Amino acid sequence: GVHFVSLVLVIVYLGGMLVMFVYSVSLAADPYPKAWRSWGVVGYGLGIGLVMMVGLVLGGVLGLLADEGTVNSGGLLLVRSDFSGVA
C-alpha cells in the first residue's frame, strides 16, 4: 500500500520535472526564436482567430453551444447546469 503509492508519486513528480527541464532546454537552444511581429506568428494568430470566429458563428447560428432557459444539457454542452458544482 503506502510504499507503492509514495513510489508512484515520486515517479510522477520526477516525470513532470523531466518534462519541464526538456521544455526549458528546447526553448533555450532555439537559435532563431520567432518574434511577435514576424509574419509567421501573425499568420498563426490570424488563422486561430478565424477558426474561433467561424466556430462561434456556427455555434450561435445553429444553437449548438447551449440550450438557453433549460437545465438539461444540449448541443456541445455536456454537463447539466444543476450538476456543475458536484465534485
TrEMBL record:
It is a multi-pass membrane protein. It catalyses: a ubiquinone + NADH + 5 H(+)(in) = a ubiquinol + NAD(+) + 4 H(+)(out). The chain crosses the membrane at residues 6-29, 41-66. Pfam families: Oxidored_q3. InterPro entries: ComplexI_Subunit6, NADH_UbQ/plastoQ_OxRdtase_su6, Nuo/plastoQ_OxRdtase_6_NuoJ. Its main location: mitochondrion. GO terms for molecular function: NADH dehydrogenase (ubiquinone) activity. Belongs to the complex I subunit 6 family. This is NADH-ubiquinone oxidoreductase chain 6. It comes from Pheucticus melanocephalus (Black-headed grosbeak). The lineage of its organism: Eukaryota, Metazoa, Chordata, Craniata, Vertebrata. The gene is Mtnd6_2.
